[in-house]
From TrEMBL:
InterPro entries: DIOX_N, IPNS-like_FE2OG_OXY, IPNS-like_sf, Plant_2OG-oxidoreductases. Keywords: Iron, Metal-binding. Residues 54-166 form the Non-haem dioxygenase N-terminal domain. This is Fe2OG dioxygenase domain-containing protein. SUPFAM superfamilies: Clavaminate synthase-like (SSF51197). Residues 172-228 form the Isopenicillin N synthase-like Fe(2+) 2OG dioxygenase domain. GO terms for molecular function: metal ion binding.
Length: 241
């Protein structure tokens, strides 16, 4: 059962809507969003060459009837978990790739709605569910350059049906960060990337590596919870958007 600390971990203060800010002040980033130089991507660590990419694991091989194929892919999966903490998965069993495309379309349509429509689902004080800007605890805090829609499904005790939208029916990026560099406290994080943009970067061996989207794949992040299970595991993996 979720503790109150798990549920009430979100926004305490309100921030401007990013899309409205860009419309009203194109090309002007408020000081509150501009990161100190040491926090910017490429300053805190080196940028990796574009040729360096995270492992791609084929789940079809892992469930194959061929023993040698299964073993080979399991070794690759184990190595990806230990050395990277991130990997992309093919043949993951979520259905046809068109399902993933529909998910992306619905998400994009929601963020295109008028501000007054999105604010019907605004985050409540201290709870990181709904539409808004999470993890704001101080007026002096540097903010992430993003809007977010956070929804929980499980456990049912934290599911808030009133925050699920009825619609839709079916700058200068070097100074700001969409999401700050962070660790995921979960066991596993599953990410569905936009095929048209490279927003996800991971830190591995002091190199920031851009994760190139591969259509039809999902990105898996080994979180702190799974890492702390007493088995041999990888060093902490940090990600940023």
């Amino acid at each position: 059962m979720a503790s109150s600390s798990m549920v009430k971990m979100g926004s305490c203060l309100k921030a401007d809507d990013m899309q409205e800010l860009v419309k009203s002040k194109p090309g002007a980033e408020p000081e509150r969003y501009i990161r100190p130089k040491q926090e910017r991507i490429g300053c805190s660590a080196l940028n990796a060459p574009a040729s360096l990419q995270i492992p791609v694991i084929d789940m079809g091989r892992i469930v194959s009837r061929c023993h040698s194929m299964r073993q080979h892919e399991m070794v690759r999966l184990s190595k990806a978990c230990q050395e990277w903490g991130f990997f992309q998965v093919l043949n993951h069993g979520t259905g046809h790739w068109q399902l993933l495309e529909r998910i992306k379309k619905v998400v994009m349509e929601f963020f295109k709605l008028p501000l007054e429509e999105k604010e019907k689902y605004a985050m409540m004080l201290g709870i990181i569910q709904g539409y808004g800007h999470g993890f704001i605890f101080s007026d002096d805090q540097k903010l992430d350059w993003c809007d977010m829609m956070a929804l929980a499904t499980m456990p049912k005790s934290i599911h808030k049906q009133n925050l699920w939208p009825d619609r839709p029916l079916l700058f200068r990026p070097d100074l700001v960060l969409g999401l700050s560099a962070h660790y995921d406290g979960s066991a596993l994080t599953v990410l569905l990337q936009d095929d048209k943009s490279v927003g996800l970067r991971i830190l591995n061996k002091n190199l920031w590596i851009s994760v190139e989207p591969i259509p039809g794949t999902l990105v898996i992040n080994i979180g702190d919870t799974l890492e702390n299970i007493p088995v041999e595991c990888r060093e902490d993996a940090v990600r940023s958007m």
